[in-house]
Amino acid sequence: MNESPNTEAPQELYGTAAIRENKLEKWPAPRPERPYLVSFDIPEFTCLCPRSGFPDFALIKIRYQPQDWVVELKSLKLYINAYRNRAISHEAAANQILDDLVSLLEPRWMRVTADFTVRGNIKTVVRAEHGVRERA
Q1: Domain segments of the chain as ranges
Q2: Is 100 a catalytic residue?
Q3: Is 49 assigned a catalytic role?
Q4: Strand, coil or helix: what is 4?
Q5: Quick one: CATH architecture of 36-131?
Q6: Active site residue: 41, 49, 68, 115, which one?
Q7: Alpha helix locations (H) across the chain?
Q8: What's the predicted TM-score (pTM) here?
Q9: Which one from 41, 47, 56, 100 is the annotated catalytic residue?
């Protein structure tokens, strides 16, 4: 029995397209006059080792004090997921996330902590910080 092979090009999954097309978005902060703390934990961060191509896994913690803007959460989720196929070092990942969010939000203060899973008997934690934290 000869069946003809499926020659249709596979369609891109909607999630893959959403990640590829994503742009970080900001919303007006509800209380710009008040210093308050916003915390995000992202336990399923992945990127690729730029040397080996093997996956690296991390818990990303984002802490910030907004000024005029807060990040829209779906755009943050899609932005973070775009790292999954990106070859980038641990240090570069933490600093790039901080740079992109600071550029978007102009917060009073922000810290990004990238707590990577042990690999090759080495535990890496990278903390990158911007601004001065006010008493909240």
Answers
A1: 36-131
A2: no
A3: yes
A4: coil
A5: 2-Layer Sandwich (3.30)
A6: 49
A7: 14-21, 73-81, 90-105
A8: 0.89
A9: 56
